[in-house]
Amino acid sequence: MYDVIEQKLQTFFASPQPEARRIFHGRGHCYPGLEHICVDWFRPVVLVSAWQPIENPEQLKQMIQNAAPKDELKAIVLQHRYINQSPADTLFGDVPDKVVVRAQDLRFEVRPGKQQNVGLFLDTGPLREWLKANSKDCNVLNLFAYTCALSVAAMAGGASSVTNVDMSKPSIEWGNQNHMLNGQGPMPIKRVPYNLFKSWGRIRQFGRYDLVIIDPPSQQKGSFNAEKNYKSVVKRMKELCNPGATIIAVLNSPFLGKDFLLEVFEKELPKTTFEEWMPVAKEFEEINPEKGLKIGRFIYNR
Q1: Residue 39 has what DSSP assignment?
Q2: Which residues are CB-neighbours of 141 under 8 A, at least 6 positions away?
Q3: Mean per-residue pLDDT for 85-98?
Q4: Would the CA dihedral through 121, 269, 258, 138 be positive or negative?
Q5: How many CA atoms lie within 13 A of 201 on its CB side?
Q6: Which helix (H) or strand (E) element contains residue 171?
Q7: How far is Cα 99 from Cα 40, in angstroms, rounded to an integer?
Q8: Contact (Cβ atoms closer than 8 angstroms) between residue 29 and residue 37
Q9: How confident is the model at residue 221 (pLDDT cuts 50, 70, 90)?
Q10: β-strands 75-80, 45-50: how paired?
Q11: Which residue ranges form the domains of the chain, and what is each CATH number?
């Protein structure tokens, strides 16, 4: 039943793979019977994420070992995303104490299997590339910054400063480590490790902004619900943006499509122009793109 995964593994490792990438994306429902499995390469670790129990994990482990270069593969981790707290088992080897990977020629610390999310979202790789090419001299606001990977890309692209906002102080500290890994900071990097909805005044202190990234969780208990709260974030942009500012709006909900984002901007921030839907990493195949990651680029025309 794992034939397609084996083929993906062999194709992937047939050439050198210095950067972190998704190898197999079952969650896009393009491969019937494998919708619950994703496989990622965080050199030197292969992370298998499962949203329901996997049949014969030993077979999957053997496929990975046969395909991956023996001198590069140090560990295979299976993470059980269907269990509370997403515990993980090490199927092979030992996970290094600190895993630093490359992505878009930048460096990021990741933690495969140690928590629900590894610390780097591979699907937004093209957005990081865009930020590297389009952030020169911008004052950047990164809302829901998590581990600040998008801010790292913006700084690498010549941003004059970034403000990282996330209610998780450990995530912001992790993000600060990512900035330092890339020789960035500390002065141009501001941190707001508080609940966004209680921090607008503090955020305004570091503005106005030339580039704003809105990349919220689709659902985070007690803090954010995309359907209910996205509009209130967009509405605040008129207080925060310079004329001509770029707003990157990210939506990762299978229940809300592109029309949702367009309607939110039309109602809450009518003085914006929709520019384009930006691509996601090609490995993230979706049988229905409306259910996958949506990234819209808007221009604020105050």
Answers
A1: E
A2: 162, 163, 165, 203, 206, 207, 209, 211, 212, 213, 240
A3: 94
A4: negative
A5: 1
A6: helix 169-181
A7: 14
A8: no
A9: low
A10: parallel
A11: 3-98+106-110 (3.30.750.80), 122-300 (3.40.50.150)
Per-residue model confidence (pLDDT) at position 226: 86
CA distance 191 to 145: 10
pLDDT in tens, 50-76: 999 999 999 999 999 999 999 999 999
What six digits make up the tokens of 258?
């592109």
Q: What whole-number distance in Å separates Cα of residue 67 and Cα of residue 2? A: 13
Q: Which secondary structure element, helix H or strand E, spans residue 59, and what is its range?
A: helix 57-67
Amino acid type, 77: V
C-alpha to C-alpha distance for 99 and 90, rounded to whole angstroms: 15
Structure tokens at 65: 């070992």
Tokens in use for 266? Answer: 């039309």
Bond into 44 cis (ω within 30): yes
Check if the beta carbon of residue 145 is closer than 8 Å to that of residue 165: yes
d(CA 113, CA 16): 24
Nearest alpha carbon to residue 149 among 100, 218, 194, 197: 100
Q: Which token pair is 228? A: 């209910």
In the chain the beta strands, taken as DSSP E runs, fall at 21-25, 37-42, 45-50, 75-80, 88-93, 99-103, 106-110, 139-143, 161-165, 189-192, 209-214, 219-220, 224-225, 241-251, 272-277, 294-300
Task: Report the half-sphere exposure of 100 (CA within 13 A, side-chain side).
Answer: 11
Instruction: Supply the mean pLDDT for the chain.
Output: 95
Q: What is the DSSP string of 205-270?
A: HT--EEEEEE---SEETTTEEHHHHHHHHHHTHHHHEEEEEEEEEEE--TT--HHHHHHHHHHH--
Distance CA 31, CA 114 (A): 27
